[in-house]
Design a protein that fits this description.
This protein is an alpha/beta fold. It has helices spanning 14-25, 37-47, 64-76, 100-121, 123-128, 150-169, 189-192, 206-209, 214-226, 237-248, 250-261; strands spanning 3-7, 29-33, 53-56, 82-85, 132-137, 175-182, 231-234. Strands 3-2-1-4-5-6-7 form a seven-stranded parallel β-sheet, with helices on both faces. It binds NADP nicotinamide-adenine-dinucleotide phosphate. NADP nicotinamide-adenine-dinucleotide phosphate binds at residues 8, 10-13, 34-36, 39, 60-62, 86-89, 109, 137, 139, 182, 184-185, 187-189, 192, 208, 211. GO terms for molecular function: oxidoreductase activity.
């Protein structure tokens, strides 16, 4: 039986990813991580009809000691065949007004924590020659800037470049990595996003409500991985075109953005 470790499993994309995995692989051993054990237990309750073996592994990606302990546990459980990484934290604040601790937290949750985790995690499958598939849910904001997302964009951009560089280092090894860059997804992500003082934004933005279904994002992410892609923007045609336009004409994009948005 394959083992799939879903990080950021307690909300949003967590359950849809597990259900898509079930469609492809049937029964698996699921390891579910997030910070909140109670929320993980609710997820377990919803998934236990399909998955008879579920291990809950709560930890905080900001805490290196907790990451170390989680990895010890994962190794005791026999390692994993797939990692699905959905942990992320959003931002709703202007850079110059932002408390520095907010900037640091976003960088840590969205980038430094996962880099630390991978530094420790990869050693074992690499030493065993074990085949591991990995999906990282990044964001379209890693490739398309908008205002009031400086730290979020920076952290997701750092994650993008880090993973792309790592993929090249791991060439020829049995590790397959795919990162996806979704536009808005209909989850509670904006409610948990931090304002300039680090409080929860506590509001579901209209872009979020009009966003893609999480099931679609999970399915497209897995299809991208299994078809051999290493990167994929998941969005409507409109955002794909805007992202393409930005990559080709960054100066013109910024001029037009300022002209249109003021
Ligand atoms: N929703 C969107 O519009 C959108 C668009 C593009 C990309 N994304 C990306 O998609 C991913 C999943 O987001 P989502 O929409 O599913 O939102 P979500 O429901 O808020 O999921 C985020 C997950 O990250 C976990 N998390 C946050 N901080 C953590 C920490 N310090 N340690 C451990 N876990 C932590 C959350 O757990 P807690 O419940 O404990 O906070 C939650 O399980 C994120 O990486 C996000 O950047 C989202």
């Amino acid at each position: 039986m394959k083992t799939v470790w879903v990080l950021g499993a307690n909300s949003g994309l967590g359950i849809p990813f597990c259900e898509e995995i079930f469609k492809r692989w049937g029964e698996c051993h699921l390891i579910l991580s997030g910070r909140d054990l109670l929320k993980l237990e609710e997820v377990e309750e919803k998934l236990k009809k399909k998955f008879s073996r579920i291990t809950l592994l709560p930890f905080d990606i900001e805490d290196f000691d907790q990451i170390d302990s989680a990895l010890v546990k994962v190794n005791e459980l026999g390692g994993v065949d797939m990692m699905i990484y959905c942990i992320g934290l959003g931002q709703r604040s202007n850079f110059l007004e932002m408390d520095w601790k907010v900037f640091n937290k976003l960088m840590h949750v969205n980038f430094t924590g996962v880099a630390y985790l991978l530094r420790k995690f990869l050693n074992i499958p690499l030493s065993q020659g074990r085949y591991v598939e990995m999906i990282f849910v990044n964001s379209i904001q890693a490739v398309l800037p908008i205002p009031n997302r400086t730290a979020y964009s920076a952290s997701k951009g750092a994650l993008r470049n880090f993973l792309n560089s790592l993929m090249l280092e791991l060439k020829g090894k049995n590790i397959r990595i795919c990162q996806v860059f979704p536009a808005y997804i209909d989850t509670d992500f904006s409610r948990k996003a931090m304002d300039r003082q680090g409080n929860k934004h506590d509001h579901k933005d209209s872009n979020q409500s009009k966003g893609m279904r999480p099931e679609l994002v999970a399915r497209k992410s897995l299809e991208a991985l299994w078809s051999g892609k290493t990167e994929l923007i998941i969005s409507s045609f409109k955002y794909k075109i805007i992202a393409k336009f930005y990559s080709l004409f960054p100066n013109l994009f910024k001029k037009l953005f300022i002209l249109i948005r003021g």
